[in-house]
From TrEMBL:
CDD domains: cupin_DRT102 (cd06989). Gene3D superfamilies: Jelly Rolls. It comes from freshwater sediment metagenome. This is Cupin type-1 domain-containing protein. InterPro entries: RmlC-like_jellyroll, RmlC_Cupin_sf.
Length: 164
């Protein structure tokens, strides 16, 4: 049976958008407490209507308990340096995700992670990430409540690939 599951988005993608809370409806197949969600049912939302977007798959990052979110980066989109208040476990679902650590965003030092790759973002660990020439989808699992804090990157080279 289909049910409407409502979740609040209080997490953020840092970079194109700062914190962006909004309600997010998800249509999913449920049966006896199990939830099945096909890729085309994942309702990504971007606060600006373009750029990086997010979907809450399970839970609520702003409340106590486990949560699962998916972040989607269009080609050339990336976050600015930031950190989270809790550990976050990220798995690349689609594309090649370029990742870096520290306050200096520099694509030349990014480590590419292909589909199926995993990365731990430890609590308070400054990092940045995003897409190169193709769209990227990353699934993140964590324990809420979690906050995201931007970091002043100072003088950062403008060498991230532009979308084609």
């Amino acid at each position: 049976m289909k049910v409407l599951i409502k979740a609040s988005l209080a997490a953020s993608l840092v970079g194109v958008a700062a914190l962006f809370p909004f309600a997010l409806p998800v249509i999913a197949e449920t049966d006896g407490g199990f939830i099945r969600l096909a890729p085309d049912q994942v309702p990504f939302k971007s606060p600006l209507g373009a750029g990086p977007s997010q979907s809450i798959i399970y839970g609520d990052p702003s409340k106590p308990g486990i949560y699962v979110v998916r972040n989607r980066f269009p080609p050339g989109a990336h976050s600015k340096p930031h950190f989270h208040s809790q550990d976050r476990h990220a798995t690349v679902i689609k594309g090649v995700w370029y990742t870096g650590i520290g306050p200096r965003l520099d694509f030349a030092s990014a480590v590419p992670l292909k589909e199926g790759s995993y990365m731990l973002h430890p609590a308070n660990g400054v990092h940045w990430d995003g897409a190169g020439e193709e769209e990227v989808v990353v699934q993140i699992v964590g324990i809420g409540p979690v906050t995201t804090t931007p970091v002043d990157a100072g003088d950062t080279p403008d060498n991230w690939p532009k979308p084609k």
